[in-house]
Write a structure and sequence with these properties.
Oligomer: single chain
CATH architecture of the largest domain: 3-Layer(aba) Sandwich
Radius of gyration: 21 Å
Number of domains: 2
Shape: globular
Strand order of the largest sheet: 2-8-7-6-5-3-4
CATH class of the largest domain: Alpha Beta
CATH topology of the largest domain: Aspartate Aminotransferase, domain 2
Number of helices: 13
CATH superfamily of the largest domain: Type I PLP-dependent aspartate aminotransferase-like (Major domain)
Distance between the termini: 52 Å
């Protein structure tokens, strides 16, 4: 008799980026040189001073990290929020370090939702990062999507939110479209949260990867008593493998997270936290990272436009979101030439007809990809 697997997991489709990695490996095994624009995993080097701080932070013995995180890291995160968004946070009661942002995003519904309640809807826009839905499902909540459409600037219709909603996820700058939200959007959403008794969960992994104007944060609303913000060093500082971020939230939410997190053991290692202090305290390396993404974007945009592929939104993040006729066929054609991109359908039904380029290859690889694209 086979071992039973939890139905929520057994019924879940393969994580879409696993399929991308499988495609990449097949090509490499066949001797094809792959230029991978599929996964949003930066190839940019982590700044040497951050790496050195990690080395310097390695002790002879590393004890279990505390769920509350190092005071120095909470203070660094609070200073950064003040400098970047003009928001004062109490590092003792309104911040907690996290193991990147993905695990905290996944677990939020487990912390906040009673699955036996009628108020258990978790709402998120789609196309979307898959973790909002998966976290809701594993918590016994009810995932519900709002289509993000081009004609609405890839913003959700907030008029569709009702009293059965417990959590509303937003993600701006947006993965996969690169769309941004104005502060007025967050203000409207925060007012609805008060009216309908839900929390706003804002995934802000990409706020520091912008090209013209720095995007707003949900932290900047006048009343943030129902606002929970997730930040990470993964994209800002090219530290995906370090797994370091933080949650900023009202004290009762931070208290709940501190109570929950020791159970699942997801606090970052202290030597990673010490490297993270250095990362949050520095903006030079972030400016250099933005410049590298801008250079790669500038190489690709002209050839993509020349092919008649319309670049939509793409105002921030490391992504280019393209409206392409017969998008799935285009993905296959690019794959034949060793260029791996993500089909928009990976991110939900509203992604049909689009493809996403993640600007993670090197500038030289982007230049070579532009030459291949020009010949298609």
């Amino acid at each position: 008799m086979p071992i039973r697997i939890a139905p929520t997991l057994a019924e879940m489709a393969t994580y879409p980026f696993v399929r991308l990695e499988e495609a990449r490996r097949r090509l490499v095994a066949a001797g094809v040189e792959v230029i991978d624009f599929g996964r949003g995993d930066p190839n940019e080097p982590t700044d040497p001073m951050i790496r050195q701080a990690l080395v310097d932070g390695l002790p002879e013995r590393a004890p279990y990290p505390m769920a509350a995180g190092l005071p120095e890291l909470r203070e660094a995160a609070a200073r950064w929020c003040a400098a970047r968004f003009g928001v004062e946070l109490d590092p003792e009661t309104e911040l907690v370090p996290t193991y990147g942002s993905k695990e905290a995003i996944f677990s939020l519904a487990q912390v906040l939702i009673d699955p036996s309640s009628d108020k258990r809807a978790v709402v998120y826009g789609e196309p979307a990062y898959p973790v909002y839905e998966r976290g809701a499902l594993f918590a016994g909540a009810e995932p519900r999507t709002l289509p993000l459409l081009r004609e609405n600037g890839f913003l959700p219709d907030l008029g569709l939110l009702g009293d059965d909603v417990a959590i509303v996820w937003v993600n701006y700058p947006h993965n996969p479209t690169g769309a941004v939200a104005l502060l007025s959007f967050y203000e409207e959403l925060a007012a609805l949260a008060e009216r309908h008794d839900f929390v706003v969960a804002s995934d802000e992994a990409y706020t520091e990867l912008w090209f013209d104007e720095p995007p707003a944060s949900a932290l900047q609303v006048a009343d943030r008593s129902r606002v929970i913000v997730f930040q990470t060093l993964s994209k800002r500082s090219s530290m995906t493998g370090y797994r370091s971020g933080f949650v900023a939230a009202p004290p009762e939410v931070i208290s709940a997270l501190k109570a929950y997190r020791p159970t699942v053991g997801t606090a970052p290692q202290e030597f990673v936290q010490r490297a993270s202090v250095v990362a949050w305290n520095d903006e030079r390396h972030v400016e250099e990272t933005r410049a590298r993404y801008r250079a790669k974007r500038d190489v690709l945009m002209p050839v993509l436009a020349a092919k008649g592929w319309e670049i939509v939104a793409s105002e921030a993040t490391m992504y280019l979101w393209l409206a392409v006729p017969a998008a799935d066929a285009v993905v296959d054609r690019l794959l034949e030439r060793g260029i791996l991109v993500a089909p928009g359908s990976f991110f939900g039904p509203s992604g049909d007809g689009y493809i996403r380029f993640a600007l993670v290859p090197t500038l030289d690889e982007c230049t070579r990809a532009a030459a291949i694209l020009a010949e298609l």
